[in-house]
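Hey team,

Filing this mostly as a record. A colleague (T.K.) asked me to run one chain through the structure pipeline before their review meeting, and I want the input and output archived in the tracker in case anyone asks later how it was produced. No errors, nothing strange. Just documentation.

Input sequence:
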Amino acid sequence: SEPSHFRRTREEDVKGRVLGYEGRLTSGYFNNITEAGVSSHRRGTHESLLDLARRYASDPEAVACELRLNGSWRYWARELQSVIRQHRTLEEVRRTHARALSTRIRRAA
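Output structure:
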């Protein structure tokens, strides 16, 4: 069995793994943040949204009916809004960092 992400002590335990999700920084060399709470939830939500989109592409009426009948459209609407906000925030942070780096480079020259 694979060791817990809290007990990773060897480099071999993490070889070949992606050590971050959606641009997040991991803390600690042997930690795999993709196994932890929020990142794991986001990955699962992402996969569920992709599955929903695939099903909708093949049979839109059935998916729309399912979402209406069980009320899950409310959940997915909130999740999509959350994803949109996260992407906008991440883009703003990236632009801010790029401007700051550009300013530093100009000052250093």
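Quick notes for T.K.: The chain has a mean pLDDT of 77. Residues 12 and 30 are 10 Å apart (CA to CA).
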